[in-house]
Amino acid sequence: MCLPAIAFFIVFAYAPLPGSWIAFTNFNYHDGIFGSPFVGLRNFEFLVKSGQLWNLTRNTVLYNVAFIVLGNIVQVALAIMLNEIRSKYFKKVSQAVMFLPYFISAVLIGVIAFNLLNYDTGAVNALIAQTGGNPIKIYSIAGLWPIIIILCHLWQSTGYGSIVYFAAILSIDTALFEAAAIDGASAWQRTRYIILPSLKPTFFILLLFSLGGIMKGNFGLFWNLVGNNASLYGTTDIIDTSVYRMIISQNNFTTSTAVGLYQSLFGFALVMLCNWIVRRVNEDYALF
Amino acid sequence: MHSSDGRPAAPSVDEQVIGKTATKDERKKAVSKSGVVVAKPRKVRADKSDYALRGVSYLVVTIFTLFCVVPFVMILSASFSEESEIMAHGFGLLPRGFSLTAYEFIFKSPRQIIGSYVVTITMTVFGTAIGLFIIAMTGYALQRKDFPLRNWISFFVYFTTLFSAGLAPTYLWIARELGLRGNYLAVFLQLLMTPWLIILMKNFVRSVPHEVTESGKVDGAGDFRIFLRLILPMMKPALATTGLFLALGYWNEWYLSSLYLGSTVEFKPLQYYLYNIINTANALKSSMAGNNVTITQLPSNTLKMASAVVATGPIVLLYPFVQRYFVSGITVGAVKG
């Protein structure tokens, strides 16, 4: 019964693995993967010396850290507030609308960004013009993009993510809240001493999941927002977009394989390390 | 992964998170049938700080909800606007002028868009059906306690999430060695399943008691028959949730198409079609071919927005009906193998 799935993973996940050898060669189509001349670590040497690898790693990790930290704060806060909503109708509508962004393709995020931010007709510049200001060339100011990308990420993932925390809040024993109310606890105290501690297990599990993926970028989001806009690379280029660009527009398989291999190995080591640490702290939270 | 070796009944995360203090009944209540998570009524007297928090909560949730819906409204409004008004005043919340020109352009020579619809719908329907069947079968087999290889195979599947060949070797393998460049199969096959969906299904199957399989065996049914006749009908919610994720994967697909299909196929999957309309001026013109217009005559701003509406519309309309499965997906979804 498992055979179709096994065949699938052999063909699409395991079979390409030996191709990683390209990272150590000067690949050309004619000689193929294993016939191309062996160059040792020269591809990596180039990446390190040019500073490219450092820049990509820094961007990828920093964006993910920002996504994890801000994402969780916003999600927990929203979950606590959702818990305060009493009107059934209000709750239904707001929850339905909050999921909507999670439902759409990354391409539509690009459309939304174009609608809001483009120089000639973007809504932001239209608003600036109406209030008498000078329009801004947003698509050429690299410094703005970390904020824009983080906001887009939060826009797409917050509603969905907060439901996980909300479900955890709902499972708290109501007797705790009753006891707290009898003792005269304020809303803040209730949040601080009952709700937040009970969200801890959920938080750690989600944290562990996301730490393991800290070297993997949200490709669709970055590519549809930035794409081939070279003036923004300094602050927006992550490993995944860079690898994609090397393949699509430069047909460069050696460097892209080297970067990809580095990403996989580093990511693998990180998962193992995180899991080892968590296992020592509390075995129940460990992934494996 | 290994945790399930020694302790077959290792609690899934949702049990850890939700189960410790709540009974099964309460858990059911938490995610009600409508898919909306509903709070249990609390008989607690409210003081001033409670009202303050509640007031702030209503305000913030309202603002956030608006924040989520406004971009959709803006795209819709823009698609019904006059191009000249947009050029003069930019995009806004409400339509600037009213015109159906953009939609007329799209549907005047609807060959491209209809072709894209056919490609995407075909892929979504078959991909979801086939993928779902394989995932359910695998999930069931991996959960069968009398299947000796289950831990090995689980690890085999899970390992692909830990370590994978990069994009470049994968691309070379599929496009060159398998010769799938320009073939819809390159997109279709790769989206059939993910390790995560198999793990999700495996955790769903846990809720089906082992006795069901046993009773099937006693009656002399084979493994396939047990799976088809007894297990599948009991897994409807799980199938709906997993199916939704699969269908979304197919519907929102543009990435694999850009790698493996590019411009080699006449009809691009819907989202990749939209991607091209947005990002390349030429795509806008060529997809409206037959209209004998120059690129400057095209109402490009409103056309882009109308294309977005046409490409996204169906999934948004479908959304209220499937939303509830999403919720069960996330609450069970945060699980470990």
Provide a quick synopsis of the model:
Chain A is mainly α.
Feature tags:
heterodimer, A: about 290 residues, mainly alpha, MetI-like fold, 14 helices, about 70% helix, B: about 325 residues, 2 domains, globular, disordered C terminus
Tell me what the structure shows:
- Chain A contains 14 helices and no strands.
- Chain A is mainly α.
- Chain A has one domain: MetI-like (MetI-like fold).
- The longest helix of chain A has 33 residues.
- Chain A is globular.
- The model of chain A has no long low-confidence stretch (mean pLDDT 88).
- With 337 residues, chain B is mostly helical.
- Chain B folds into two domains: 54 residues; 197 residues, MetI-like (MetI-like fold, Orthogonal Bundle).
- Chain B is built from 18 helices and no strands.
- The radius of gyration of chain B is 25 Å and the shape is globular.
- Chain B starts with a helix and ends with a helix.
- The N terminus and C terminus of chain B are likely disordered.
- At the A-B interface, helix 1, helix 4, helix 5, helix 6 and helix 7 of A face helix 2, helix 3, helix 4, helix 5 and helix 7 of B.
